[in-house]
Specification:
This protein has 341 residues and is an alpha/beta fold. The chain has helices at residues 17-32, 48-60, 77-91, 109-124, 136-149, 153-156, 175-185, 201-217, 221-250, 258-261, 266-279, 287-298, 333-336; strands at 40-43, 64-70, 95-100, 130-131, 162-163, 166-167, 251-252, 255-257, 306-308, 315-322, 325-332.
């Protein structure tokens, strides 16, 4: 049966090798996560990655509900979103919903669009996991970007296959495979002009830096970066477990007992402090702020409190040490200016 204007004939999916690889990746993800038993949502842009993912999910993941975010940043974006929703229905999705958004807020355009997109997907997912079309290439770009920014092991560990509610079944699949899968489906994917614009750092990594590294090192760079991310995630999971235990021992109400923290390995202690500070309202915590907070324990010289992101107008959120305890509170800009750093 033909679906009007979709360009797709509904029926059994072709058995091409690329589409089968995508299907197997989705099948493994679904088997590993019970949350998908009642169906999933898929973030569909119309590009090759999300289009191949949607086609595979319809077969492998039960009821699939497509969510198409229209960022409204380009002329004709509404038509692109509507066409993606049509294709989702033709592929057999139980529903397809277009989510128009307004991109605004702090940070550059790329960061603001990402934040707005995730907010829209979270609001529309109806408690279902949301499958995202991130591939092995996206993972490699994420690791390389974190390395260049000196973001630490948490960033270098890259994206997880499941960080509820976000599922990423294709982290082991190359972008070239999803492109071929769309060819096997007979569906030309949408080519977002932003994905070719050199004004975005990630685009330059994709089109310039990674190809150059592949040439210099003789290939295999993307796979090596993703293996590094997997190893760091495994190590990080162990450190996170130790940090939870340390935080439990050190917590005294809303404060932390310095004596319970001081002898812990710094890597574990900083993870415990990070979790505690985020719980107490810190936002956008930087490595510099975290290390300054850790100095209140490991390099105590009577220094003043450390200002953190997460305050409100006219006041700052500050972590400070007093009588062997760490606490977080609000300090007025004027009164706290001489004591906080």
């Amino acid at each position: 049966m033909d679906h009007p204007s979709s360009g797709l004939t509904v029926g059994p999916l072709p058995e091409g090798p690329a589409l089968l690889e995508v299907r197997h990746a989705v099948r493994r993800w679904v088997r590993a996560h019970d949350d998908a038993d009642a169906g999933v949502a898929v973030a569909l842009s119309g590009g090759a990655d999300s289009l191949a993912l949607t086609a595979a999910a319809v077969v492998e993941a039960g009821p699939v509900h497509a969510l198409v975010v229209d960022h409204r940043l380009q002329v004709g974006s509404g038509d692109v979103a509507a066409r993606a929703a049509e294709r989702a229905r033709a592929l057999g999705c139980a529903s397809a919903q277009v989510l128009p958004v307004t991109v605004e807020g702090q940070g550059g355009l790329e960061a603001a669009a990402r934040r707005t997109r995730y907010e829209a997907l979270d609001a529309a997912r109806a408690d279902r996991p949301v499958l995202l079309g991130h591939t092995l290439d996206d993972q490699a770009e994420t690791v390389l970007l974190g390395l260049a920014r000196g973001s630490g092991p948490r960033s270098l560990a890259g994206m997880r296959a499941y960080d509820a509610p976000w599922g990423r079944p294709l982290l082991g699949v190359r972008r070239t495979v999803t492109e071929r899968a769309c060819t096997e489906l007979g569906l030309p994917p949408y080519r977002d002009p932003h994905n070719l614009s050199p004004e975005f750092t990630r685009v330059r990594l994709r089109t310039e830096a990674l190809p150059l590294l592949e040439q210099i090192l003789g290939g295999g760079v993307a796979e090596a970066l993703t293996r590094t991310a997997a190893q760091l995630r495994e190590d990080g999971d162990v450190l996170d477990e130790l940090a939870v235990e340390l935080l439990t021992c050190a917590s005294t109400g809303d404060e932390l007992d310095v004596a319970a923290l001081v002898d812990a390995p710094p890597a574990v202690r900083r993870r415990a402090l990070r979790a505690w500070l985020l719980r107490r309202g810190a936002r956008g915590l930087t490595d510099r702020q975290l290390r300054a907070a850790d100095d209140l324990v490991g390099s105590w010289r009577g220094q003043g409190g450390v200002a953190l992101g997460g305050g409100r107008e006219g006041v700052r959120l500050v972590v400070s040490r007093r009588r062997g305890r760490l606490s977080v509170g609000f300090v007025g800009e004027q009164s706290g200016s001489n004591n906080c750093r």
